[in-house]
Design goal:
Strand order of the largest sheet: 3-2-1-4-5-10-7
Distance between the termini: 33 Å
Low-confidence stretches: none
Largest sheet: 7 strands, mixed
Oligomer: single chain
Order of helices and strands: HEHEHEEHEEHHEEHHHEE
Strand content: 15-25%
Mean pLDDT: 92
Number of helices: 9
Length: about 270
């Protein structure tokens, strides 16, 4: 089980900044999922595993002043950042609370329960969703968005990118993460007692002429580095993290290659319990 102590990406200041940059990169894709799922003004929303608050802040803009959002996470450090961001945005109808998803039982009923990049770290995913569903009003929305990490790719692939991909995949695997949680959302929803979900997927594509993609890809590996070293996957010396982004980018430019980020899969369904 992934715990606060062995979470593979850690809770450093650098990781918090990476998450916020990632949130900006993925905002349109997550907003599309929430729109398809039926999030609307006036809804009461629970965001599970909210981290530094990206999805919560997106959701509160959708539900408006007559709605509300509660974000929960097990990391007090992440929640402190989320609260600061909400205060900066002068958002009054959003709250954050510390809680462990393995035991959390919401109080009251919600119109929607949402989450992004949460289930890959939860061994009993279906049981957790089943428990959370009890707090959805009849017809309420369950919407989850997860990566398929193994779909990370470059075309054409170079030996350098192949090593990078292996480090990413082996790092998350060694930490016990479920690599292709996105593709398993359909089965997870059904096992949780939810109706068969509707689903959508997308991938971002980066070229070497746009350094942002390779910089972010390298930052993921930087956050993962302590996990890689603990598990014996790779050492900092072997990875040469400080120059990796530029090496990946120059390599891509030289070969006119493009990088496909992991496939992002969203699923949503409406609870039908009485």
């Amino acid at each position: 089980m992934t715990t606060l102590e062995n979470y593979p990406l850690g809770y450093s200041e650098g990781e918090a900044k990476r998450l916020m940059k990632q949130g900006a990169m993925l905002e349109d894709l997550t907003a599309d999922l929430l729109s398809r799922a039926g999030l609307a003004p006036g809804m009461r929303v629970l965001d599970v595993g909210c981290g530094v608050g990206d999805v919560s802040l997106l959701a509160v803009r959708i539900v408006g002043k007559k709605g509300s959002v509660l974000g929960i996470d097990r990391s007090a450090a992440s929640l402190e950042i989320a609260r600061g961001r909400a205060e900066f945005c002068e958002t009054a109808n959003i709250w954050f609370a510390e809680a462990d998803l393995n035991t959390f039982e919401p109080c009251g009923d919600f119109d929607a329960i949402i989450g992004r990049f949460v289930l890959l770290y939860v061994p009993e995913r279906a049981s957790m969703l089943r428990r959370l569903t009890q707090s959805l009003r009849r017809g309420g929305v369950m919407a989850m968005q997860e990566y398929d990490i193994s779909s990370l790719a470059e075309a054409p692939e170079s030996p350098l990118f192949a090593r990078y991909r292996r480090w990413i995949v082996d790092g998350f695997t060694s930490a016990g993460a479920e690599l292709d949680t996105g593709s398993k959302l359909y089965a997870t929803f059904i096992q949780a007692g939810l109706p068969p979900p509707q689903m959508v997927s997308a991938q971002l594509v980066h070229s070497g002429h746009e350094p942002t993609g390779y910089e972010h890809a390298t930052q993921v590996l930087r956050s993962l580095l302590p996990t890689l070293e603990r598990s014996g996957v790779a050492t900092a010396t072997e990875i040469e993290i400080d120059t990796l982004a530029e090496r990946l980018r120059e390599d891509a430019v030289a070969r006119h290659a493009v990088m496909f980020t992991p496939r992002l899969v969203g699923a949503w369904a409406r609870a039908m319990q009485p």
